[in-house]
Amino acid sequence: QVQLVESGGGLVQPGGSLSLSCAASGFTFSTYRMNWYRQAPGKEREFVASISAISSTTNYADPVKGRFTISRDNAKNTVYLQMNSLKPEDTAVYYCQAAAYWGQGTQVTVSS
Fold it and tell me: Residues 81-90: pLDDT tens digits?
Protein backbone atom coordinates (compact mmCIF):
# COMPACT_ATOMS: atom_id res chain seq x y z
CA GLN A 1 0.00 0.00 0.00
CA VAL A 2 1.42 3.33 -1.07
CA GLN A 3 1.84 5.91 1.68
CA LEU A 4 3.20 9.43 1.60
CA VAL A 5 3.41 11.07 5.01
CA GLU A 6 4.36 14.72 5.29
CA SER A 7 5.70 16.36 8.43
CA GLY A 8 7.44 19.52 9.56
CA GLY A 9 4.75 22.12 9.03
CA GLY A 10 3.92 24.78 11.57
CA LEU A 11 3.69 28.47 12.33
CA VAL A 12 6.66 30.67 11.45
CA GLN A 13 7.25 34.41 11.27
CA PRO A 14 7.92 36.13 7.94
CA GLY A 15 11.55 35.69 6.98
CA GLY A 16 11.80 32.44 8.90
CA SER A 17 12.51 28.90 7.75
CA LEU A 18 10.85 25.51 7.87
CA SER A 19 11.89 22.10 6.65
CA LEU A 20 9.26 19.68 5.41
CA SER A 21 9.74 15.93 5.05
CA CYS A 22 7.76 13.33 3.17
CA ALA A 23 8.30 9.69 4.07
CA ALA A 24 7.31 7.29 1.31
CA SER A 25 6.49 3.59 1.42
CA GLY A 26 4.81 0.95 -0.69
CA PHE A 27 6.60 1.67 -3.96
CA THR A 28 10.12 1.86 -5.36
CA PHE A 29 10.87 5.38 -4.20
CA SER A 30 14.19 5.71 -6.00
CA THR A 31 12.57 5.31 -9.42
CA TYR A 32 9.94 8.03 -9.04
CA ARG A 33 10.06 11.77 -9.60
CA MET A 34 8.88 13.40 -6.38
CA ASN A 35 6.90 16.60 -6.24
CA TRP A 36 5.72 19.15 -3.72
CA TYR A 37 2.47 21.05 -4.26
CA ARG A 38 0.62 23.54 -2.07
CA GLN A 39 -2.92 24.79 -1.70
CA ALA A 40 -3.76 28.08 -0.07
CA PRO A 41 -7.26 28.81 1.27
CA GLY A 42 -9.64 29.57 -1.56
CA LYS A 43 -7.07 28.79 -4.23
CA GLU A 44 -6.29 25.86 -6.48
CA ARG A 45 -3.49 23.47 -5.69
CA GLU A 46 -0.26 24.62 -7.33
CA PHE A 47 3.09 23.10 -8.17
CA VAL A 48 5.99 24.06 -5.90
CA ALA A 49 9.00 21.90 -6.73
CA SER A 50 10.08 18.57 -8.17
CA ILE A 51 13.13 16.33 -8.14
CA SER A 52 13.86 13.63 -10.68
CA ALA A 53 14.47 10.01 -9.79
CA ILE A 54 17.97 9.30 -11.02
CA SER A 55 19.89 12.51 -11.57
CA SER A 56 18.05 14.48 -8.87
CA THR A 57 17.43 17.27 -11.33
CA THR A 58 15.28 19.91 -9.65
CA ASN A 59 12.59 22.26 -10.89
CA TYR A 60 10.85 25.09 -9.03
CA ALA A 61 7.85 27.33 -9.44
CA ASP A 62 8.83 30.95 -9.99
CA PRO A 63 7.43 32.23 -6.66
CA VAL A 64 9.76 29.96 -4.66
CA LYS A 65 12.92 30.00 -6.77
CA GLY A 66 15.95 30.98 -4.73
CA ARG A 67 14.10 30.44 -1.42
CA PHE A 68 13.06 26.77 -1.45
CA THR A 69 15.25 23.71 -1.97
CA ILE A 70 13.97 20.22 -2.72
CA SER A 71 16.15 17.20 -2.03
CA ARG A 72 15.80 13.47 -1.60
CA ASP A 73 17.41 10.61 0.28
CA ASN A 74 16.72 7.38 -1.57
CA ALA A 75 18.19 5.32 1.26
CA LYS A 76 15.55 6.74 3.60
CA ASN A 77 12.71 6.89 1.04
CA THR A 78 12.26 10.53 1.96
CA VAL A 79 11.94 13.79 0.08
CA TYR A 80 12.53 17.15 1.73
CA LEU A 81 11.56 20.76 1.13
CA GLN A 82 13.73 23.37 2.81
CA MET A 83 11.88 26.68 2.88
CA ASN A 84 13.76 29.87 3.66
CA SER A 85 12.81 33.56 3.65
CA LEU A 86 9.19 32.59 4.09
CA LYS A 87 6.47 35.06 3.17
CA PRO A 88 2.83 35.29 4.27
CA GLU A 89 1.85 34.24 0.74
CA ASP A 90 3.60 30.91 1.32
CA THR A 91 0.84 30.02 3.78
CA ALA A 92 -0.79 26.84 2.50
CA VAL A 93 -1.20 23.13 3.00
CA TYR A 94 1.85 21.47 1.45
CA TYR A 95 1.45 18.10 -0.23
CA CYS A 96 3.93 15.47 -1.34
CA GLN A 97 3.12 13.71 -4.60
CA ALA A 98 4.42 10.79 -6.63
CA ALA A 99 2.67 9.61 -9.78
CA ALA A 100 -1.02 9.23 -8.83
CA TYR A 101 -0.37 9.28 -5.10
CA TRP A 102 -0.73 12.15 -2.65
CA GLY A 103 0.05 12.62 1.00
CA GLN A 104 -2.41 14.07 3.48
CA GLY A 105 -0.65 17.43 3.61
CA THR A 106 1.00 19.52 6.28
CA GLN A 107 -0.05 23.06 7.20
CA VAL A 108 2.45 25.89 6.85
CA THR A 109 1.41 29.26 8.26
CA VAL A 110 3.60 32.33 7.85
CA SER A 111 2.42 35.11 10.10
CA SER A 112 3.67 37.61 12.63
Answer: 999 999 999 9
